[in-house]
Each structure stands twice: as structure tokens, then as C-alpha cells.
Write a structure and sequence with these properties.
GO terms for molecular function: ATP binding; glutaminyl-tRNA synthase (glutamine-hydrolyzing) activity. The protein is an alpha/beta fold. The chain has 16 helices and 11 strands.
């Protein structure tokens, strides 16, 4: 998609000005999906500048390409709310590093997309702006969830409002909605992309990532954002060369593991059949496919839930209403009263419950029992992955989600904690160990909703992972299916 737009822009069969105008029009016409929370309408000059660069042959890799950004990445002069009343008036004075690099590559940031409040959710339903609706519908009278927490970005791409978008992934927040919306969602290795300017949820697991229609588009966007950042000590210089990405990837020498533990309770028959179909397809093309065991998978979601809440409690302590963010207008007799009331009025139930849970786990009497024990189990989960890579397996292929996108009404009938435990079962282990993971759409279910699969690789083997995903994508040809 991006390569085609680049060609048309260079050939002058499409101008950057017209592309920008069409994008704004599409966003307006599809506003009922509630994908965007803020549309940046002052990009006319940037579109003109891109048009001039294209005319004089000095274009950059993403010249004139409209890209959306999840509303938990700081954007200079543009509101960044995290879909929370706490930050509803927050306007950053700087760009997140990944946003800055997109702009430097010529991309036009078209707007900020909806998410669960502070990225705590798996549906994009817990937002002060209301829920984002999935563009795919099994029944014209009912809406399905977009998935979360990067649901706004995934719907923006799936509906054609933009060709690519930024999301963040802490336990599957890119892969989950990408799966439900039938687009490609990529979570790079932890440390590959800078987290500077990404408002933190869980520092040890948060990863900026990319949503696009095709794997090749993901590679194009990744290539301009990669690289060390002096503002982020967790961002490392790996010398990973995106130019080494090859489209003629050979599968016949690859060993692919199928983890038995991912065939879990709640996995739908259609998702299981799709998983088997992909495994058989790889086998038919001479890839070696074998079942493997990852024994700590069953306790991974509980471990993730404890560590998530602990880091949330720590990160959210900065929102007091004293220096920035929402401040209660009631009369207060003490700082404690001001802080308590401000947080109670500005933070949603899901956020408050995670703060309370995290503080409970971190109590002196509970610290060893919950937090330290979870860290030990996290190490065991990481060892499961390392043992697979040491056994010379190249990739793991698993389901992304256990079912297709639930109806909005069904999803809301269960509490956030239950939903996250179900929706993130297959995705959060990759965040626990830091390895790269990608989800690509495979087929439509019987009720015409997308079904996807997930591929994981060893840490910093992102390019080979993308090559394998691109090979599989070409064989599946899901992009040929139209809404």
C-alpha cells in the first residue's frame, strides 16, 4: 500500500495535497467508528511541502503518507489525553521519539486515535470518548469490539482512513485489535524502538509498534523509526538493518514450533482449525513443523496481571493534580484530600482498580508472596522461550486471540479483569520475555469476521520474523478480501 502510494506520488498521478484532503474526508465520513479522538487539520502546509519535495525529487521515505498515532504518544502542540479525564487538557511541548522520526521521514501525522483509558484494556471500550467500533460486522444492527487497547489505530487502518498507525503493546494491545480488525499488527523486540514520549503503563513491557495492511508496509514504517535514543536508556543499538529484509524468503530450512499449551480452554473451534490450517500450509511448503511444550504458559496470565498492576500503581502515582493533570475544584483542607478527590474524579474504575491491586501486591506483608514470586515465574516463562530457541526452532506459531471479535454488548457484560485474562492469554507471554511478535490475518470466520494467527521469534530476530510473516501473508492473500 505505501509502496503503491509512493509510486503514484512520484508519478504525479496523485498529489500529496489531494491525498491529505481525501484522508480528512474519509475520517469525517467514517466518524461513526470513533477511531479518532483528535484530528489534526493544520497539515495543509506539510502536504504542500511534501508536494514540492516530490516535484523536485528530494522526497523522504514516507513523503506525504498519512499516519495515525495512538493517543498515549506525546505529540507537540497536539492534545495527548490517554483517553482519560486526568489528561484531557494536556498538550505536550515535545514529540515522542517515534513520532519525531516519522515526521522527519515525511509522514503527515493525521490525528490521535482512541484507546482504553491509559491503555488498560482489551476492547477500546473504557475511554472518556466512548468505545471504538469494529469496521467488520457480522450483523448490520450490532457492533463488534475493535479490541484493545490500540483499537482506534487498528480501526483507522482497517477502514482505510490511513495506511499505517502507531500503537503501543504491553500485553497484546496491538496484536489483539489487529487480529479482530483483520490487519497486520507488529510488536518489535523490547528495546528496539524508543519509548521516550510514550506515556508509560508497564515500563518493563511497553513497546511502541506498528499497524498496517501489509507486512511490507510495517517494514517501511519500522525502517524510519529504528535506532538508539539517548533519551531512552532501554533503547539499544542493535545495528539491525531493515534493508536486509528480503521478499524471497525460503521456508524449507525453517523449524516452526506449535506450543501445545496454547490449545487452551476457551479456544474456539474456528480459531483452532485456522491454526491447524496454517501449520499444514507451512508443512506443505517443506517447513518443519513440530509440537513443542512451554510448561509455564498456564501461569503466565496470572503472573502478567500481578506485575502489570504493580507497575501501574507505581506509574500512576505521578497523577496527583498538583503539577499537571486534572485538579478537583472542590474545597480541600489538605494535600491528601486534594490528591484523593482529584484521582477519584478523574480516573475511571478500571484504572483505580489496578492501582489498588498493585498497591495491595506491593504491601510489605505481600511483597514476597506476590511481586517477588511473580518476578521468579516471569524468569521461568522467559526460560521456556529461550529453551525453544536453543533447540534450533526459528519461530513459534500460535493463535492471537481465542475467538473472533465479540459483540460490544457481550464484551461489556464481563468485567475488565476477566476480559483481559481471556483476550491476552496468547499475546502477553511475548511481552514477558521481550521477544518480537506479529499477527497477520488468515481468513474470515463463518460469520464473516477476521481470524488471525501470531508468529513469535527470538529477541532481535525481527527481520527474519517479518520475512516469514511476509511469506505467509503472500500465501494466504487475505488482503485480497474486501470489506
Amino acid at each position: 500500500m505505501i509502496s503503491l502510494l509512493n509510486k503514484r506520488l512520484r508519478d504525479r498521478t496523485l498529489s500529496a495535497i489531494d491525498l491529505y484532503g481525501k484522508t480528512l474526508s474519509d475520517i469525517e465520513n467514517k466518524s461513526n467508528l470513533n477511531a479518532f479522538v483528535h484530528v489534526i487539520r493544520d497539515g495543509d502546509q506539510r502536504a504542500v511541502d511534501s508536494h514540492k519535495r516530490l516535484q523536485n525529487g528530494t522526497q523522504r521515505p514516507l513523503e506525504g503518507i498519512p499516519i495515525a498515532v495512538k493517543d498515549n504518544f506525546c505529540t507537540k502542540g497536539v492534545p495527548t489525553t490517554c483517553a482519560s479525564k486526568m489528561l484531557q487538557n494536556f498538550v505536550p511541548t515535545y514529540d515522542a521519539t517515534v513520532v519525531e522520526r516519522l515526521k522527519a521521514a515525511g509522514a503527515i501525522i493525521i490525528g490521535k486515535t482512541n484507546l482504553d483509558e491509559f491503555a488498560m484494556g482489551s476492547g477500546t471500550v473504557d475511554s472518556i470518548f466512548g468505545p471504538t467500533k469494529n469496521v467488520w460486522r457480522s450483523n448490520p444492527n450490532q457492533w463488534h469490539i475493535a479490541g484493545g487497547s490500540s483499537g482506534g489505530s487498528c480501526v483507522a487502518v482497517a477502514s482505510g482512513m490511513c495506511v499505517a498507525a502507531l500503537g503501543s503493546d504491553t500485553g497484546g494491545s496491538i496484536r489483539n485489535p489487529a487480529s479482530y480488525c483483520g490487519v497486520v499488527g507488529f510488536k518489535p523486540t523490547y528495546g528496539l524502538l524508543s519509548r521516550y514520549g510514550l506515556i508509560p503503563l508497564v515500563n518493563s513491557m511497553d513497546v511502541p509498534g506498528i499497524i498496517a495492511k501489509t507486512v511490507e508496509d510495517v517494514v517501511t514504517v519500522l525502517s524510519v523509526m529504528i535506532g538508539p535514543d539517548e533519551n531512552d536508556s532501554t533503547c539499544v543499538d542493535t545495528n539491525l538493518d531493515t534493508n536486509s529484509f528480503q521478499t524471497d524468503f525460503s521456508i524449507d530450512k525453517c523449524r516452526i514450533g506449535i506450543p501445545e499449551e496454547y490449545n487452551c480452554e476457551g479456544l474456539s473451534d474456528e480459531v483452532k482449525e485456522t491454526w491447524d490450517f496454517v501449520a499444514n500450509l507451512i508443512n506443505d511448503f517443506k517447513g518443519t513443523v513440530k509440537k513443542v511444550s512451554m510448561p509455564h504458559t498456564s501461569v503466565s496470565i496470572a503472573t502478567y496481571s500481578v506485575l502489570n498492576a504493580c507497575e501501574v500503581a507505581s506509574n500512576m502515582s505521578r497523577y496527583t493534580g498538583l503539577f499537571y493533570g486534572y485538579r478537583s475544584k472542590n474545597d480541600h483542607k489538605s494535600f491528601d484530600s486534594l490528591i484523593t478527590t482529584s484521582r477519584m474524579e478523574a480516573l475511571g474504575e478500571v484504572v483505580r482498580s489496578r492501582i489498588l491491586s498493585g498497591n495491595f501486591f506491593l504491601l510489605r506483608s505481600n511483597y514476597e508472596k506476590y511481586f517477588m514470586q511473580s518476578l521468579k515465574v516471569r524468569r521461568l516463562i522467559s526460560e521456556d522461550f529461550k529453551n525453544i530457541w536453543k533447540s534450533n526452532y526459528d519461530f513459534l506459531v500460535t493463535p492471537t486471540t481465542l475467538t473472533t471479535a465479540p459483540l460490544l454488548s457481550e464484551f461489556k457484560s464481563l468485567d475488565n479483569r476477566t476480559q483481559c485474562a481471556t483476550q491476552d492469554y496468547c499475546t502477553q507471554p511475548a511481552n514477558m520475555t521481550g521477544c518480537p511478535a506479529i499477527t497477520i490475518p488468515v481468513k474470515l470466520s463463518n460469520n464473516k469476521m477476521p481470524i488471525s494467527i501470531q508468529i513469535m521469534a527470538s529477541n532481535f530476530d525481527d527481520i527474519r520474523l517479518l520475512q516469514f510473516a511476509n511469506w505467509l501473508e503472500k500465501k494466504l492473500q487475505f488482503s485480497q478480501i474486501h470489506l
